[in-house]
Amino acid sequence: MNETNDIYDDEIRIIKREHPQSEEKKRFPQWLIVVLTVVILLLLCGVLILLSLDPKADTATQLVEQDMTEEIETVFDPVDVSENLPLPTWLGDYPDTTAVGYTQRIDTLLGQVALSIYIPYNAHPQLSIGQLDRKDGTIILAAQAADIRRDNKEIVGSFVLGGQKISEGISKTGYCAILDDVVMIGMAKNSSLYDEAIEKGGYFFRQYPLVYEGKLIENNPKNITKRKALCERQGQVFVVESQTNESFHSFAQALVDLGVNNAIYLVGSHSSYGWWEDQDHHRHYFCDSIKPRIYSNENYIVWKR
């Protein structure tokens, strides 16, 4: 043959055709694909392990979860207060220290935040779980305390009831401990008061910290609703309720302006159940309905005469 394209009648030409996927195999070797897949799977497993072991990651998850006892409110009727009321001068000035246990209410306005202050006198503080007995005439002040998780309906954070450990966790760093009728409020990831409450038959629960050593503490939840707090000011403990819908920040700032030393959040919203009893033994409920939502782990801080 003089030319490569010439073929004699008694000859055949064998043409070798590449498989259409051969080029792809050359560009993407199978071993490389396998290696990349294994690496990706290992990375995913590592992330899952870290999330399950890292307490900070677990804390972050719990902080953003919606608590069953917290409601979001956006519409409210502000309290009609035409001018700022003077700061209360009730510290150390008990109206009647010999009277049968009762609760004093004082209203004040700090900036644009209207507050009601509830001060229990001659009563013993404690925690309780479950529906309150409305026939119990010894209760002079009762407010919902720790939040309940929406998913498993367990109490959020550590909770001790009469020395018995009910739950354990530090998703919220604020705490209240009750030992020998003394209420202690603070902020710490780990507090020896938790163990002491178990040892001495006391009480302990956790909530969002609002004020610590006179300074405002910021919190992640950004919803606007009615707020409650358990406060300590120069050794005196009381409950404060906002009469208007407030953010965590504006409510905590009002507590700072009130001169509160330490404060933690209590279950808020317009449907937060509880009551207080005045000096004439008249009961006043915090919400319009006297029938609370009932969950097995619904819990309260109460003062009994």
TrEMBL record:
Transmembrane residue ranges: 31-53
Keywords: Membrane, Transmembrane, Transmembrane helix
Domain of life: Bacteria
Record-given protein name: Phosphodiester glycosidase domain-containing protein
Organism for this UniProt entry: Candidatus Gallipaludibacter merdavium
Phylogenetic placement of the source organism: Bacteria, Pseudomonadati, Bacteroidota, Bacteroidia, Bacteroidales
